[in-house]
Design brief:
122 residues; mainly alpha
């Protein structure tokens, strides 16, 4: 398991780098959720259940714009895959498939959450 707890990790820095130009709201607000996203990805990998990340994403849409959640998940998944490529190359294919599946669940979850928010405000 890759554990991400600090801003000094390569995964954190790579995620920030990928998010630099994609946030639709306050970048500092999005950046404050990076460790949460990386930890959710680690839980997803540990459990082998792609819906774990979707559950985190659904709750994150309460704090962040849905597009920012999607961008955060994509950037964090890319950073984690990069770390796995360097450290556990033999498992990279399985991790990549799991995270791709998780990203599909996330896309569905934030689409539903965003539509629910629009319906409530209308």
């Amino acid at each position: 398991m890759l554990t991400v707890l600090s801003t000094a990790t390569p995964e954190y820095r790579d995620t920030v780098s990928l998010l630099t130009n994609t946030t639709t709201t306050d970048p500092a607000h999005v950046e404050s959720s990076i460790n949460d996203a990386l930890n959710a990805i680690n839980r997803t990998i540990d459990s082998g259940d792609p819906q774990t990340l979707a559950q985190w994403a659904t709750s994150a849409t309460r704090r962040l714009d849905a597009a920012d959640v999607g961008n955060l998940v994509v950037a964090a998944c890319a950073a984690v895959q990069k770390a796995w490529m360097k450290q556990n190359r033999s498992e990279l294919s399985a991790i990549s498939r799991l995270l791709l599946s998780a990203r599909h669940y996330v896309a569905d979850a934030i689409f539903v959450a965003d539509n629910d928010r629009v319906a409530v405000s209308a």
